[in-house]
Amino acid sequence: MGQKLSAMKYIKNNKRRVAVLVISLALCFMLTYLVNFLLSSTEETFRIVLVDNAQKIQYLRLAGSSLGMDVEHMDQEEIHELYLEKNLELAEKLKGYEEVLDSFYAQILYMDVKAAIGEWQTEIPLVEKEQVSVILKHYGTKVSEGRMPEHPGEIVLDRASMKNGNYQLNDYFDTESLDDTVKIVGILDSESYFGCGIPSEKYQLSTSIVILSDGSIQDVTKLLEKEGIFIRDGFDTVVDVKTGKEDLQKEVIDVINNSSNVIYFGVLLVLSLALYIVYTMYLRDRRNEWCLYCSIGYSKKEIYCSILRELAFTFGLAIFIGAGLTMILVVGLDFGMIRPMGIRCRYFYPEIIMEILCSYMLLIGLLQIPIRYALYKIRTIDAMEDDLYV
Fold this sequence. Notes:
The chain is α+β, with helices and mostly antiparallel strands. The chain folds into 2 domains: 7-46 and 250-388, no CATH class; 98-209, no CATH class. It has 12 helices and 9 strands. The protein has helices at 7-13, 15-52, 76-94, 129-139, 159-164, 175-178, 221-226, 241-285, 287-295, 300-338, 350-376, 381-388, and strands at residues 57-61, 100-114, 119-126, 143-146, 154-158, 183-188, 195-197, 207-213, 237-239. A 5-stranded antiparallel sheet has the order 3-2-8-1-9. A hairpin with a 4-residue loop joins strand 2 and strand 3 (119-126).
């Protein structure tokens, strides 16, 4: 026949049934993207903590034996004095390298950075009053609210850290463990999960060598090897770009990918089963319609092409609606939840969209089974009448 079967006629006459299918597919698009979006916001947040910050500042906490200390006949006070001397000596030597802009020995305050899932500790150096301005200048930030630390036990934090820890200006940092000894007196014009301050006279914290670099240091251990110091796992701690990338990949990205894969395949499995069952019932309802088309001269190929056009319209409309709803919710979540919590995110994840589109293509392929079977069972009206009189 010259006239092509129109897919839109059935869609217009069965708006409710088609609408249910479109909404279901759109919601699956939205659910899959939003789950991955929230999981990925954890990666975006911890990337700043582990990698971006490590481009500017590195930390070394070395065991006494790594520094060549022999403490066999020393008391605790002598050991402490020698350890301080060795660290100050190493910090001074590191200043001689071109990529090291400054280096000093400092107390370290640890701050918990909370993401959508999980949390990570980042370092806050506590140094002499004069060195605070040096660190802030190196970091390219300044105090936008409050004031600079002037007395022992005072620190400044960036805006993201203030939101993330639910702090207000002049709050005490981590009240329970530090017993009101560290006070937040200023807010930095930055959102990089960073801060610094002056050590408290009432509370002794762990210590590290702080290195301010020009951004070219990826692996601090190479500098230490030039000084005859070799890092030993379990004894020494190094915080630099190399260790940051390793931790980000192993502890964050791999864990997120495993979780998102489980969720993705779970949603895909449930959607496939539900869609297969519903669509099989839907095809049964249309058997008489296709038999009529065959009887008036349409081929099974023409009927099949019409069904494919219906599927293309249904899935295409579902993707369009799902993408629109998803973008609205992503922006809403960002401004309503993520930013107020001091968490980082990005809106567009092409790899997630490709996974969803591939899953929809898989679903269309899966539906070819009941479609082909239904077309195989099509008979003309004449053949059906012959069966009645046999």
